């Protein structure tokens, strides 16, 4: 049999990015060689804030052309204390996601076996969500401007852009995702009471798409009320679809409710598969713990599972996620989850478990 060989571009970038990406690649290489049913080939890119400070650019001019030759992109985190966040975000992460039309940002969250939700009554299995975030337009379309800078009458606008094309393709992807999950339930998040243009069209398109999914249970929530439902009735939610900004905020809340921002993954998908998709832990570069060797690698391991699954290796992905949960259940966890293990110790424990289980 001919084995699939996947070419992965890795962009560790800043802060704890390189620490968790090293851990993720170690685990991915381990599972590939152990299963021996597929191969992974990594190419590392040093596109980070140091490069920006030295050359004025995060990426070379032909970066997108280069990335298009890969099957997937594994990304760490971007952001440095001495570079404004809007520069690092727009010149690296968004500079990849938006032109590569990775319009669906998929953010699963659950309470792992062996870990605890800060919600007193929430047990493993009661919080198991996937948030689908619009990733190409909305509030992060970059429209707007500033005039009269520095004057008392300075004006700035930040215009949200919602297109029928952009909303409909995202809604369809979200409804398909809901259909693939056992609960067959989707919650459409909106703010159409206050935002009476884009959000009203968003609701209308959701209702239209819902007609093609009669097997799904569909409900609608205003984003503010959604935060209370996530906290008070986590078991009442399954698949959640929201705008770029709303889902950005809700997914950090989701990660915290599941135990730590250090476990949650993100996939930036081009569902048409014309371009490679990008996979990253949800957290940022975490300057406060950089270099201490205590960054939780679990978010990157789950990210690796999401990447394998997207590449067509769902069985390996499911096995790896089980193993990561087994390691948590054994109590081998970093400090953010209440444990005392280092990044390397958790990584080694996952590799050992791959050895003994697969
Ligand atoms: P952050 O996610 O980097 O950190 C928030 C808190 O969570 C910190 O206390 C940090 O120590 C902790 N934390 C994060 N990841 C962890 C892990 N794997 N294990 C243990 N603890 C972890 O968010 P913050 O502080 O708002 O941003 C720091 C920088 O990261 C900024 O420059 C920001 O722009 C950037 N950022 C980049 C993202 C990306 O590349 N996709 C996403 C979010 C932030
Ligand atoms: Mg965020």
From TrEMBL:
SMART domains attached to this UniProt entry: Iso_dh (SM01329)
Q: What's this protein's family per the entry?
A: Belongs to the isocitrate and isopropylmalate dehydrogenases family.
Which EC class is this protein assigned? Answer: oxidoreductase
Q: What is its EC number?
A: 1.1.1.83
Which key words are in the record? Answer: Magnesium, Manganese, Metal-binding, NAD, Oxidoreductase
A Pfam family the protein falls into: Iso_dh
PROSITE patterns, per this entry? IDH_IMDH (PS00470)
Q: Which cofactor does it need?
A: Mg(2+); Mn(2+)
Q: Where in the numbering of this chain does the Isopropylmalate dehydrogenase-like domain appear?
A: 7-350
| Catalytic reaction list | (R)-malate + NAD(+) = pyruvate + CO2 + NADH
Its taxonomic placement starts with:
Eukaryota, Fungi, Dikarya, Ascomycota, Pezizomycotina
Q: Which GO terms describe its molecular function?
A: D-malate dehydrogenase (decarboxylating) (NAD+) activity; magnesium ion binding; NAD binding
Native organism: Glarea lozoyensis (strain ATCC 20868 / MF5171)
Name of the protein in its database record: D-malate dehydrogenase (decarboxylating)
